[in-house]
Amino acid sequence: MSSANNNITFVPENTIDPAAGLNESISIIDALLQIAVVSVGDNTPPVSPASGARYIVGTAPTGAWAGQANKLARWLDSTWTFFDARYAVNLANVHFYVRGGAGWVDVTAAGGGMTNPMTTLGDLILGGASGAPTRLAIGAATYVLTSNGTTAVWQAPTSGGMTNPMTTEGDIIVGGASGAPARLAIGAEGQVAVVRSGVLVYEDQAGGTVPFAPVLTESTTSRTLSVSDAGDYVRFTNAGASTCTVAQQSSEAWAANTEVHIRVAPGGGNLTLTPGSGVTLNTPSGGTLVMSAGMSVTLKRVAEDEWDVIGQTVAA
C-alpha cells in the first residue's frame, strides 16, 4: 500500500525489519521536498547527471525517459525514478513552475511573480510603461527623490527649491517683494521684532524686553527723528543752536503711542522742536517749542502726525 497523494510506500504492519520499506519511503519524500530541478521540459535524459539531480520531463521524452512525460525524474544510485510532482523551482532561471491539466506552467513568466530589474545596491523598482517594473538607479550623493511631472527622478535638493538668503547665526527668512525669500538680520541685544509699515523689523522696545530707554548722544546741531528713535532718550550736547525735527507719518512709519524722550544737556545750546510737513506739536501749557540747557520733554504720538510735548520748555 502507498499514500493517496504522493504514492509513498507504507511499511506493512508487523514487519520484523522495517528498514528497507522505511528507507524507500524516506527516499520518495526526499525527492518531493523542496523541489529544485536542473531543467524543465527537456525530452532527452542528460548524459552524466549528478547523484540526486532532479528534472521536469518534457512532453515527448525519449530514451530512459520514454513514457514519462511531465514527470519529475530523479537520478539516484544509477537509476531514474519518476514522480507525479505538482510544483518546482527551475534552477536555470529561478522561475516557479506549477503542473496543471495542460502540463507545466511558468508561473513567474505568466505574471504570478515579478522579475527583479534591480542591479545595484540602493536601486528602486519604478513603474515603467503600462506599469512594467523598471529599474531606477540610485541617485548621486545628497540627491532627493522627486517627481518631474511624468516619472520619479533623483535630483539635487536645491533644484526647484529655495536659495537660502541667510548668512549669520540668528538670521530669519521673511517674505520680500512678491513673497521672495529675504534675509532679516539678527537684531541687537534686547531688541524685539515688530511690524513697521507691513515689514518685520528689529528695534528697541522701551518697557518691553528693554527695561530702560537707551541714551543716544546727539552732538550735531540738527537731527530728524526716525522710527529707530522710538523709546530712546536723545541727549543734545552741542553748544550751538540746534533743531530736532519730528518727521511726518508718510516718511516714517510711526507706531501708535510711540514716545521719544528729549534732553538738552548742561552746556548745550537752545534746541528748537520742529514739526515736519503736516505735523502738529502740542506745546505744554504756557510753554514753547524752544528748550534751553537742562530742560527735558517727552514727545508722545497721540494720532497720525500729531504729538504732545510733555515737560519743561520755559525757564522755571
UniProtKB/TrEMBL annotation:
<dbReference type="InterPro" id="IPR021251">
    <property type="entry name" value="DUF2793"/>
</dbReference>
<protein>
    <submittedName>
        <fullName>DUF2793 domain-containing protein</fullName>
    </submittedName>
</protein>
<dbReference type="Pfam" id="PF10983">
    <property type="entry name" value="DUF2793"/>
</dbReference>
